[in-house]
Write a structure and sequence with these properties.
It is built from 15 helices and no strands. The protein is mainly α. The chain has a domain at about 45-245 and about 335-345. The structure holds protoporphyrin IX containing FE.
Length: about 350
């Protein structure tokens, strides 16, 4: 009898020890590879930072990272000057365009950040974002851009700290700051603080500045976007929970999973494909709607169950070209400008933002 209990106890103890070992292995590997003996970070290029970001975002905390970026976008709608410009596009408040806008925003950012830095693909995505913004000229201010950038950097850190099974380590925070700073510079944003503390101060001061808050944008209209896109997701209502319950569930699961689950998820599936024979890419992971999905048997069945008919032309199952992303009416516009912008980025040797950057 005793020996049975001993075997059970040993098995459970061995399993828990294995969980502890494997669960934190990627973090230990990151720290071994990217931190010197004297504690300084070995990030020497934007690409180094990007590789670290891939581990944190695609392996360790995919769901929370994606969700916090979406929430960062919602937060920008609280700034009247931002919501005013967004409302004027009509893209977010119309059900026909809101889903595509959400997919394209995610896709352009993923193309920019999840392809090796300085590749044509990444540069073209950044250049396309710049083109879409350029049509609004001075109506999009540098400070609004900087504030949005600060949220893309800080919101995931805050959410991971509150609800994820582990917060980002210092070297991961530093990598996020480095990569987003590089992206921001390529988008022409100036005055980006070179450490997280100053960035946070800028961000909080901006939100609380009475002059900034006093404008007359219309966040309520923009935010219908959230409702509409949520409605498009077949399962979202089935799992909707009271805020308090959700908070408790998130907190509990974040504490339990590192103790009882061997590893965090396997790598999240890649977001996009390589070029297909027609020179287009397919999206491999849809957030809201199946735009640019390949029309395979599996996809037709899977999306069919979610209520989407892939035969409809609007899903563009032939795939996308990066320079076509954005509002439908601009599909064929700006290609030359985008390609020129991408070339200039390539020619300008990028001055490393990590020099002089400190993580705190
Ligand atoms: C770091 C900051 C920002 C990033 C990374 C960013 C990213 C993007 C992306 C990926 C798109 C393409 C979405 C699509 O149309 O499918 C986009 C479009 C757009 N963004 Fe931004 N954005 C930023 C800041 C801002 C700010 C501050 C404003 C407004 C004040 C703004 C206004 C717009 C507008 C108006 C469009 C084009 C929509 C259209 O033409 O219909 N963005 N942005």
């Amino acid at each position: 009898m005793i020996s049975t209990w001993l075997i059970i106890f040993s098995a459970v103890a061995a399993y828990l020890l294995a969980c502890r070992y494997f669960r934190f292995k990627r973090l230990r590997d990151l720290q071994r590879d990217w931190i010197d003996r004297d504690g300084s970070f070995k990030i020497r290029s934007v690409e180094d930072a990007r590789i670290i970001l891939e581990v944190s975002n695609l392996y360790e905390s995919t769901f929370m990272w994606e969700t916090s970026i979406e929430l960062a976008l919602f937060r920008t709608y609280g700034i009247p000057t931002i919501s005013k410009v967004l409302v004027s596009t009509g893209q977010l408040s119309q059900p026909e365009s809101a889903g595509k806008r959400a997919e394209d925003t995610g896709l352009l950012l993923q193309e920019a950040l999840y392809n090796p830095w300085d590749t044509e693909r990444s540069r073209t995505a950044i250049s396309r974002i710049n083109y879409l913004h350029s049509r609004y000229g001075k109506r999009i201010t540098n400070d609004d851009m900087l504030y949005t950038l600060s949220l893309f950097i800080l919101e995931p850190m805050r959410w991971l700290e509150m609800y994820e099974w582990r917060p980002l380590s210092d070297v991961e925070k530093y990598a996020q700051l480095t990569l987003w700073t590089a992206l921001g510079q390529r988008m022409g944003i100036t005055g980006i603080p070179n450490n997280l503390k100053d960035l946070e101060k800028f961000s909080v001061d901006y939100e609380e500045n009475p002059k900034i808050r006093a404008g007359n944008g219309d966040p309520a209209i923009v935010c219908t976007f959230g409702r509409q896109t949520a409605e498009l997701h077949a399962f979202s209502h089935a799992f909707s929970m009271d805020g308090m319950v959700r908070t408790v569930c998130l907190k509990v699961s974040s504490q339990i999973s590192p103790v009882f689950l061997l590893t965090q998820t396997e790598q999240s599936p890649p977001y996009f494909s390589e070029k297909n024979p027609t020179g287009r890419y397919h999206k491999l992971k849809s957030n809201f709607q199946p735009f640019y999905a390949r029309s395979s048997v599996y996809n037709r069945l899977y999306f069919g169950l979610l209520g989407f008919d892939l035969k409809e032309e609007k899903w563009m199952t032939e795939g996308y070209k990066i320079e076509e992303l954005g509002p439908n009416k601009l599909k064929d516009a700006g290609h030359e400008q985008v390609s020129r912008g991408a070339q200039i980025m390539f020619k300008c040797p990028f001055v490393l933002p990590s020099r002089g950057l400190s993580p705190r």
